[in-house]
Design goal:
By secondary structure, the chain is α/β, with parallel strands linked by helices. The chain has helices spanning 11-21, 34-42, 57-67, 92-120, 141-163, 182-186, 197-209, 219-228, 233-245; strands at 2-6, 26-31, 47-51, 74-77, 124-128, 169-173, 178-179, 195-196, 214-215.
Amino acid sequence: MKILITGASSGIGMDMAKYLDKFGHELYLVAKSENKLKELCKKLTNAKYFVCDLKNEKNIYKLYDELKNEKIDFLINNAGFGLFGFFDETSLDKELEMIDVNIKSVHILTKLFLKDMIQRDNGRILNVASSAGFYAGPYLNTYYATKNYVLKLTMALYEELKQKKSNVKVSVLCPGPVNTNFNNVAGGSFNAKGLSSEYVAKYAIDKSFKNKLIIIPGFNMKVAIFFSRFLPYKLQLKIIYKIQQNKNK
């Protein structure tokens, strides 16, 4: 199986690559850091890397053009980042970059590879969202909004594929806190203990192959998301803001 993973140089993406490598899959790894990709590929059996800054739209199309003839079987849109801060105080340029990576790159790659998969009537896509996709997020506002987009887009695609009676499968990963480099990039860290990246990566891949639509690792997060649907929106906002206040700079 040929598998394309974005954001593969660290965190969940890297651990997905390591886990999938155990099964002998042919991996195509994408990230900005060539050095990190090189080091990762040395540890894997059958992997190629592509240096690509996904906030640049031209790079996304170039990546697709380089790989479209490979007949990718499994696309994992994992690249993404966040930014802590009040909306009126955070960098607009950084937020627009986040929208480009978290939304635009996912949208374009999903659309282009999905069309090929539908034509072949075979393939699989896993989009990495977040538990943030179920909420609005004061103090991590743009990130939450981008993950809402990824979650709802993937859910809609699931039903469209079902109506088409297509054999193409889509899933969306919605983890809570995970021990990765996310907090350093976003500008903060949470006191709450996160799940290990290795666990989340393995759990996500296993559930995706079982055609699970919404993948939520961890019992506590499943319970939290389930019961939050019974809370008024304004109360949800207060609770989430308090959680964000536990951030340590």
